[in-house]
Amino acid sequence: MIAATHLSSTYYLTFAAILFGIGAVGLLVRRNVLVMFMCVELMLNAVNVTFVAFSRALNDISGQAIVFFVLVVAAAEVAIGLAIIVAIFRRRRNGATADDVDLLQG
Amino acid sequence: MIAIVAPRVDWTSIAPVVVLVAAALLIVLFKAISRDRVRTYEPALLIGVLGLALSAFYLTKQWSVVVDGGPSDALAHMTALDGFSVFISVIVIISAILMLLLSSEYLVARGIESRPEYVALVLMSAAGMLVMAGANDLIVVFVALEVLSIPLYVLAAYDRTRARSLEAGIKYFVLGAFSSAIFLYGVALVYGATGTTSLEGIQTFLATRVLVNEGSLIAGMVLLLVGLAFKVAAVPFHMWTPDVYEGSPSPVTAFMASATKAAGFAALLRILYTALAQYSSDWRQLIFALALVTLLGGTFGALWQTDLKRLLAYSSIAHAGYILIGVQAGTAKGLQSSLVYLFVYAFMTIGAFAIVVALGGTDDLHAISDLRAYGRRRPVIAALLAFFLLAQAGIPPTAGFIAKLGVFAAAAGAHSYALLIAGVVTSVIAAFFYLRVILTMYAAADEQELPDELETAPTWPAIGVPVAAVLAICVVMTVWVGVLPTIIIDFARDASLIF
User: Fold this and answer.
1) Which residue is closest to B365 within chain A, CA to CA?
2) Hey, which of B82, B169, B176, B322 would disulfide with B156, CB 3.0 to 4.6 Å?
3) Would you call B142 and A73 a contact, using CB atoms and an 8 Å cutoff?
């Protein structure tokens, strides 16, 4: 039984790591700001899965409580991010890809 | 049934934060109920400055509590109340006040709509930084990181009519959210390895047990470092810094450079020096590499810059490298020198950005070549800019010298001679690009006849009282700490006695 629990938590952790990787790569590769935005959400939710998996494996409830904090933070980030995207859309109506914001060359 | 015991709320420990949040909410409420015609910015500014002053008053109370009773923690061990948190909070509050003083004139002069929400956002961000200064749990660090960052995303994009400001906002947002997610994954992995997110809990866990499989903990530690390295703008996680610093309104840049860096280093120092103290030989190697590339990247990046604001951005990256030298030492001296550096750096950098505000002009673009003959055209501005650049270069009678000396001494004490040499060499190279600006202002005056239109159409002839006050405060503090450093060094030493 213990072996089975251990095995299943490894599955969840691997799944979360892959999900996090997809999000991170997507954020760096994709040029559409909205898609980049969704990639951040993917990363945060991958972390949530990790927290719940660890919480189950450690038999400790605090990991699941943390998920609620992350959800609230993600919601606040969505609100601000979309507001900035809308502000950019208003200035230039023909789309908001990352290529449109290229005045500052780091 | 298990009775739920609510944690005892120790109001002394959270009073500065509560005051700031209350002031911010008051401003938003005031804006909501006031009529359209009423001027709302000035009252909001008044509430904001009063809130910050009250917060500073509570900080002095906290300091006396710490001096009398030693460090303590509150809210079920979630936040710490110690000299360290008070020291960082002082830097944040001072930066916020100076930033608000710079802002009102800047917004008017640049024709940016001055809305009360601007002040509320600054207060919210400062509140997040205060929480960060005392955060004693990785989840509190994460929430504080977001509370301080989210208002900054909006502030960076505050000038909605200007494409550069919006671009700074979206870039800061995307990379900030990315770094937060990485930091959070680090928290998750550390939680998985140790079974707790409390910094003290992690410290005890690691001190009492030997981990069979360290992989998860080490990976988590690296991810925590990466997430915070983004916030303090350390190379190679600095890509956003020049763009965001250039595009954001200058007072916001000044606030980001001084206060955000202090808050980021606060979290970094506390996590490394308490929770991961057992693994100091591991993280010291990581910080060593980070400090080295940050010093080199910041200094050599600055060499090629042609714009004053971008030059200051790269210089702030290089300063992060010097502070990392102090962090890398891993000793009480290292902690103390990092704190002194953060304090001194706040005044030097806010002063420099106050000059950018005073220079005027549209879009905040100041090509260094345009500063030619400023020594004659605007002697006071030129002299002050030269002063702040010399201080940042670390020329002896200024505070910059004391700060650099402190971190170098800490590196020598910890036998990190390679970093010490790298620090000295990059200081010499850095002096070159600071001097280039100063020479441009003073040397070419006689050779080149001044173009008439520059003489007849000064973009912003007079400095207003608030900006002059900010400049005066920054000059006085930079000289004072440079000449009589003992007070601030003792303050930092008392503050670093917590761990």
Assistant:
1) A104
2) B169
3) yes
* Residue B300, number of CB atoms within 10 A of its CB: 16
Q: Tell me the three-class secondary structure of B273-328, residue by residue.
A: HHHCHHHHHHHHHHHHHHHHHHHHHHHHHHHCCCEHHHHHHHHHHHHHHHHHHHHH
What's the number of CA atoms in the CB half-sphere (13 Å) around residue B489?
17
Q: Does A87 contact chain B (CB < 8 Å)? A: yes
Q: How far apart are CA B359 and CA B454, in angstroms?
A: 13
Provide, as residue numbers in chain A, all residues whose Cβ is less than 8 Å from the Cβ of B157: 84, 87
Q: How many CA atoms lie within 13 A of B236 on its CB side?
A: 2
Name every residue whose Cβ is closer than 8 Å to that of residue B88 and which is 6 or more positions away in sequence.
Answer: B129, B132, B133, B262, B263, B265, B266, B339, B342
- Do B91 and B346 meet the contact criterion of CB atoms below 8 Å apart? yes
Give the span between the Cα atoms of B295 and B297, in whole angstroms: 6
Closest CA of chain B from A2, distance in Å? 17
pTM of this structure: 0.92
Q: Among A16-20, B78-82, B216-220, B493-497, whose mean pLDDT is lowest?
A: B493-497
Higher pLDDT, A102 or B296: B296
Q: Is B198 helix (H, G, I), strand (E, B) or coil?
A: strand
Q: Answer for the pair B220, B187: CB distance below 8 angstroms, yes or no.
A: yes
Q: B242 and A69 in contact by Cβ < 8 A? A: no
Q: Residue B160: what pLDDT?
A: 85
Nearest CA in chain B to A16: B185
pLDDT tens, B24-64?
A: 999 999 988 988 777 888 899 999 999 999 999 999 999 99
Average per-residue pLDDT for chain B: 89
Nearest to B239 among A70, A90, A106 (CB): A106
More confident site: B242 or A90: B242
Amino acid occupying residue A15: F
Structure confidence by residue, pLDDT tens digits, B262-276: 999 999 999 999 999
Give the pLDDT confidence of B324-356 residue by residue, as tens digits: 999 999 899 999 999 999 999 999 999 999 999
Of the candidates A84, A91, A106, the beta carbon closest to that of B173 is on A84
Mean pLDDT along residues B436-446: 78
Q: What is the pLDDT of residue B425?
A: 95
Distance from CA of A5 to the nearest CA of B (A): 15
Q: Cβ A87–B239 below 8 Å, yes or no? A: no
Residues 6 or more apart whose Cβ sits within 8 Å of residue B323? B232, B261, B265, B338, B341, B342, B345, B407
A49, A77, A78, A92: which to substitute to probe chain B, counting the most B Cβ within 10 Å?
A77
- Reported ipTM: the value is 0.88
CB A71 within 8 Å of CB A52: no
Chain A residue nearest residue B192, CA to CA: A54
* CB-CB neighbors (< 8 A) of A63 in chain B: 191
Residue A38: closest C-alpha in chain B: B174
Going along chain A from its start, the domains and CATH numbers come out as: 9-104 (1.10.287.3510)
Of the candidates B150, B166, B189, which has its C-beta nearest A88's C-beta? B166
* Closest in B169, B185, B240 to A20, CB measured: B185
